[in-house]
Write a structure and sequence with these properties.
Elements (H helix, E strand, L loop, with lengths): L1 H56 L5 H14 L1 H4 L10 H57 L1 H8 L4 H12 L1
Length: 174
């Protein structure tokens, strides 16, 4: 008896562990997809910045082209990049400002992706709720019709009894 109980307990623990492992893998997969989508958004948003940065930091480019590139960089995000100049574009301060800007874009993109997914899930849940409600209404309408008109019950059940018709109708619509 004790061995059988121990084997059952081990089996139950294994099933619970595998379920938890599967849930964790699913959560990790969702997180990875969210991060990938956010990274794609950030790459699109920063591609112009990095192209301008390359021109601004290129010592072989004309001073005018470099100034124009820095002016464009300043316009992208005055809050983070507004203090960049020709003199400090190649410094650690410039790198930190750009890193902070990219980090803020990443957080914003992640939030947007999460909100978008949440909105889609809510829409799907509402769709399911509405569909379930419609199906339930159809079932009750059918049942009410069968009670009011026994011929419907006979067609649904074919057994000649109203109760059998109602049971068959319920089975059909559930």
């Amino acid at each position: 008896g004790f061995i059988l109980g121990a084997v059952a307990a081990i089996g139950a623990a294994y099933v619970m562990f595998s379920d938890e492992t599967e849930k964790a893998a699913t959560r990790q997969s969702i997180l990875n997809e969210t991060m990938e989508e956010a990274d794609g958004i950030v790459k699109k948003q920063t591609s112009n910045l990095f192209a301008l940065l390359k021109v601004a930091q290129d010592e072989t480019a004309s001073k005018e082209a470099r100034k124009n590139a820095i002016a464009e960089i300043n316009k992208i995000s005055p809050e983070y990049l507004g203090n960049l100049t020709l003199e400090n574009i190649r410094t650690m301060a410039a790198k930190n400002a750009i890193d902070q800007y990219v980090a803020s874009l990443r957080k914003k993109a992640e939030l947007e992706v999460i909100q978008s997914r949440q909105k889609k899930l809510i829409e799907k849940i509402d769709e399911k709720k509405n569909m379930s409600l419609e199906e339930e209404v159809r079932w009750y309408d059918y049942l009410a019709g069968a009670i009011k008109n026994p011929s419907i019950a006979l067609m649904a059940g074919g057994s000649g009894s109203i109760m059998a018709g109602q049971i068959n109708a319920a089975e059909r619509w559930s």
